[in-house]
Design brief:
Helix content: 40-55%
Distance between the termini: 158 Å
CATH class of the largest domain: Mainly Beta
CATH superfamily of the largest domain: Glucose Permease (Domain IIA)
Radius of gyration: 58 Å
Shape: rod-shaped
Number of strands: 15
CATH topology of the largest domain: Glucose Permease (Domain IIA)
Structural class: alpha+beta
Low-confidence stretches: none
């Protein structure tokens, strides 16, 4: 049974065997209870809603970070592969560098041997290559720069060496050191008894006797400056070899070259005879250095 008044709610409890109990409740309490419960559930709903949203945000952030981690792992894997390739390329580059160094050293040793054989003292030499190349502390790019510089220097040095070698070969070919004919030497350079009279006279060359028509060859490479009859020398050939050297071939039976011809060392230029003032078939051979006759045996091999 419920009894209401203006200020309180009265609740009567009538048991079967006991005294009736009366409970007075303020009229605002039920409404307050309802409002409190509603507020509690509203707060609970908002709390779980926010918690759920935070969980979703966290899950989304975790998914994004997982994706970033996967991307980073993939990028790291690529970097490791690139590093491995770079190391491999660096090793190949160092092997190539060592090969280049070895080849340069071989070229340098060969150049030294050729210079020694040719008697060339080359002032263009850059020094010891083994000291020029020191790449153990350099990066690959710096190594390549050093090798490129050394190769350029070596190329220039080899070009200078080739020029020196060609000049030396040209000099050796021009040097009139080849015996011009075969036969017996009948008169040497210097003073001798005059074969056409009394007393002595200066003999400015050597005489080599053999049979008529014996081949006479150029003692060195050069240019024919005279080919004809030259007074007591008879049929004569004169060759200018350069470097201050000239040779004269006299008493020829036949001349096989003409003025202006370029002749090689050992080239046939005439046939032995006895033209001019001669006591018999022979070659009168002279070598001049700076327009003065010298002893041919100082030059001939």
């Amino acid at each position: 049974m419920e009894v209401k008044d203006n200020s309180k709610i009265c609740i009567l409890i009538v048991p079967h065997t006991k005294k009736i109990k009366r409970i007075l409740i303020p009229h605002w309490l039920p409404k307050a209870t309802i409002y409190s419960l509603a507020s509690f559930f509203l707060i609970l709903f908002l709390f779980f809603g926010k918690t759920s949203k935070n969980q979703l945000d966290l899950k989304q952030e975790a998914d994004e970070k997982s994706s970033i981690i996967v991307d980073l792992e993939e990028e790291n894997k690529k970097k490791e592969e690139e590093l491995a390739n770079l190391k491999s390329q660096t090793e190949i580059l160092r092997q190539k560098t060592n090969e280049v160094e070895n080849k340069l050293l071989e070229i340098d040793r060969l150049q030294r041997r050729l210079e020694k054989m040719a008697g060339i003292d080359s002032p263009s030499r850059g020094g010891d290559i083994s000291r020029d190349i020191h790449t153990s502390t350099l990066s690959p790019d710096e190594e390549m720069d050093v090798i490129a510089d050394v190769l350029i220097d070596k190329k220039l040095e080899l070009e200078n060496f080739i020029e020196d070698l060609e000049a030396q070969f040209d000099y050796l070919e021009a040097m009139p050191d080849l015996m011009p004919t075969s036969g017996r030497v009948t008169s040497k350079f210097g003073y001798r008894r005059n074969p056409f009279g009394r007393g002595t006279q200066f003999h400015s060359g050597i005489d080599i006797a053999n049979s008529s028509g014996t081949n006479i060859k150029s003692a060195g490479k050069g240019v024919v400056t005279f080919a004809g009859v030259n007074s007591g020398y008879g049929r004569t050939v004169i060759i200018d070899h350069g470097y201050g050297y000239k040779t004269l071939y006299a008493h020829n039976k036949q001349i096989l070259v003409k003025v202006g011809d370029k002749v090689e060392k050992g080239q046939l230029i005439s046939k032995m005879g006895s033209t001019g003032r001669s006591t018999g078939v022979h070659l009168h051979f002279e070598i001049h250095k700076n327009n003065k006759p010298i002893n041919p045996y100082n030059v001939l091999n």
